[in-house]
Amino acid sequence: xxxxxxxxxxxxxxxxxxxxxxxxxxxxxxxxxxxxxxxxxxxxxxxxxxxxxxxxxxxxxxxxxxxxxxxxxxxxxxxxxxxxxxxxxxxxxxxxxxxxxxxxxxxxxxxxxxxxxxxxxxxxxxxxxxxxxxxxxxxxxxxxxxxxxxxxxxxxxxxxxxxxxxxxxxxxxxxxxxx
Amino acid sequence: xxxxxxxxxxxxxxxxxxxxxxxxxxxxxxxxxxxxxxxxxxxxxxxxxxxxxxxxxxxxxxxxxxxxxxxxxxxxxxxxxxxxxxxxxxxxxxxxxxxxxxxxxxxxxxxxxxxxxxxxxxxxxxxxxxxxxxxxxxxxxxxxxxxxxxxxx
Lengths: 179, 153
Hints:
In chain A, about 60% of the residues lie in helices and about 5% in strands. Chain A is built from 6 helices and 2 strands. A two-stranded antiparallel sheet of chain A has the order 1-2. In chain A, a hairpin with a 2-residue loop joins strand 1 and strand 2. In chain A, helix 3 (about 45-70) packs parallel to helix 5 (about 110-130) and helix 3 (about 45-70) packs antiparallel against helix 6. Chain B has 7 helices and 6 strands; from the N terminus they run E-E-E-E-H-E-E-H-H-H-H-H-H. In chain B, a hairpin with a 2-residue loop joins strand 2 (about 20-25) and strand 3. The longest helix of chain B is centred in the middle third of the chain and has 26 residues, at about 80-105. Chain B is globular, with a radius of gyration of 16 Å. Classes of the chains: A mainly alpha, B alpha+beta. The interface of A and B includes residues 79, 83 and 149 of A.
């Protein structure tokens, strides 16, 4: 896949995430989005807040890395970036344990978190647009749960989007059970 | 940085780069631990017991360290409670790390040993040459690279 194809694919994915959120979540009753199956599972809002925590970390990094990056070149995924993207993608059905500092459980949340989330998506689209004119190969993106690990900018985007897709599925499942 | 039979006088803070601790084992040097920025490293048994070190420490890339002598370190440890707390936390982490490594060594399948390291410290694969990782995991470089092919695909 070329860098341009990758960006296009990711832009489509993000667009889909935005549309699904607008169509499936924004019109829900606040009781539904706060419902949780048991004390350990997350409500719809908690899923969004969890994603927000990651966006606050990654959007900034992606932006800074792109600002320093030079003109476009063919992109090749790094094997570690690829490994972690596959691990987090919805196709891996094994549950992944959440670390405490990114666990939104117990916070009081309103629809504001969904609005914040949509803001992060618009920012992500902007960054992807910017990425079209940049080299995505520099290994500049720190991974939140392994701060010493750095992955390529292109893999950073892939990782963020795959993570969103994973939790969007969880959101739709939770909504299904709540109604 | 330190040879075998030398008594470790310093505790080093790694500012940049990567080092390895090795145990000379018959015909080859067995890698037992890696150190990288930002963390501290020393030949621990020698540092604590003031006896000649059985291990040696070698840099694996261009490395910058700052050392503090044992006397100074212990003096500061008593005067600064925050340093004491930090030291205790580091000892706890180091002990947990050693226990993980013990499980590594008890794990028979090479692929499981690699997977455990990958889940624990993926950055090692970015900063340490594979031949040292193979030694650390107690397998031949060939076994490691054969298994890495499966993981990468």
